[in-house]
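Appendix B, Record 12. Input sequence as logged:
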Amino acid sequence: MRAVPKRWRNGLIAAAAAAVVAIPLTPLSASAAAASLNGDWAPFSRCPVDDPAMLAADGQDLVASCVSSYSPGGEFKLGTTEATTGANDMQFGVIQDTAAGTFKVIPPAGGALVSAPTEIPGGLLGLMCPSDIPVVSAVCGQITSVSLNRVTATVESAGAPTEFNLPAGLSVGQPIVKLPVRIHLENSLLGSNCYIGSTGSPVVLRPQNVTAPAVAIQRFDGDGTRNATGGAMLRFALTGNTQADTTFAAPKATGCGLGGILSWAVNLKEGLPSLSGDNHLTLNNASTYSAALTAPGLVLPNAGKVLSQYWHSAAK
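Logged structural output:
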């Protein structure tokens, strides 16, 4: 077999490395700025191509790529609460140091995770009622409608992903990345600052493949048009697999109710904090894509800038 030219090889490794991060786990938030992109660029609507680190990638020593991972749904258990998840999307950039063989995650400005809110079964009544504590029972007595009872949980980024492990993404049973998150509990009586976890004490997820994904390699032009033989861009697709984490601990809830007065009631009813092994997350039918220049060595030292130009050229 003929050896792959170095100017191509770096692109292949970068795209493959990015593709293994199939960790779709978060809120499709209206606040997250996302572009609408053409063709094979479509999954990468939040790739931070204009981040200084991405732009500085020369294509030889440092190679930039985009990653997108999506799951239509799954299940989670946190303390004593079990619920299904909605659609989840995670996107970020990856910088490969070709000499060191390391990969650095570059999250978008709004955070890597974006997901649809999940409705908590039983709502506020199930979250902390009934109670024989006067202040809590008084709140429970105010829950007179479905809208007042409804509680949603949204997973949010609580820091940048780290500890990206390339071989783990292509195998089964090994953590792929370390992902700090917090869970925002929302209800008018809980206020706007009720969280499980925080940036200082996050829920730390280490998702891994439970089943192996199907793998496809695709090429496309800079504007997103599929071009199987001469595309300047290379895309890896890992689809149809399940991911899970059963190792994470869940810290206590804070900031619930005026001055946090209801936090202890939520923690008592929900069994928080909850130790590792008592919680789990499952993400079904994950679809993960990565994209990098097919031959970054051809545009030295401007590969990062060319990647950004191509991304912008695909905007609808």
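The CA atoms of residues 52 and 304 lie 9 Å apart.
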